[in-house]
Amino acid sequence: MPYVKTTGAPATDLYYQDLGQGQPVVLIHGWPLSHRMWEQQITALTEAGYRCVAYDRRGFGESGKPAGGYDYDTFASDLNDLMEHLDLRDAVLAGFSMGGGEVARYLGRYGSDRVAKAMLLGAVPPFLLKTDDNPDGVGQEVFDGMLGAVKKDRIGFLDGFFPNFYNADQGLNEAGNDLIPFSKWIAWGASPLGTQQCIVAFGTTDFREDLKTITISTLVIHGDSDRIVPLEVSGQRSHEMIAGSRLEVVQGAPHGFAATHASQLNRLMLDFLRS
Length: 275
Prior knowledge:
Layout: E1 3-5, E2 13-19, E3 24-28, H1 39-47, E4 51-55, H2 72-85, E5 91-96, H3 99-110, E6 115-121, H4 140-165, H5 179-188, H6 192-204, H7 208-212, E7 217-223, H8 235-241, E8 246-250, H9 257-260, H10 262-274
Parallel strand pairs: 3-4, 3-5, 5-6, 6-7, 7-8
Antiparallel strand pairs: 1-2, 2-4
Helix pairs in contact: 1-10, 2-3, 4-5, 4-6
């Protein structure tokens, strides 16, 4: 199985899939999932002539589950290790939800020498937490509540989380009824510690300075019915902060639109890649 050893402390092994030929597209998954969330996108992109590299964040999927390193500086270092290990160039970084934080922090810390374009998909930047200089953000009590619930009963928390992730009460659109149990199965196998500490990471990390450094072509895609990472707090503001970025709002789409609106997302991604 393909792994890369990370240099960020504590060191661990990152699992990745490397499929197809052509310009590389690096797919960075959301919390609390793994590379398996990208099944529809990997199929569409590889069939269209792109190379897909989809990896599992430390603590999730088939990657190692170390006792630390669940912060965005380390996540960006892990991504850089993968980029260097595979010697990826002219790459496109596509980050979903908390994966968008890796895109922002990587570009802020390591630059765009290896990167041609970026995609922020339902992503957490620029800054979710409500503070004096970010009054429209989400209150600390929301993240504290999530963290407390995961510590008390992670499996029970996930049972209540995924219906809102996909807005299941509105129907799963083109996804089947097994989507939620499949998602829970993915998340069950994650590190309990990593699941907890990632809430702190995506809930409190400020990416505003990272976004200011982005000069490459950037696509922002967000669902207008996202209950997990609201458009107004995240995607809309990232678009406004990244000069020349393109914003695509998917009507009626929940947070987990990579599954529920896969065809529309795939078309938008391919159009951006070809432009």
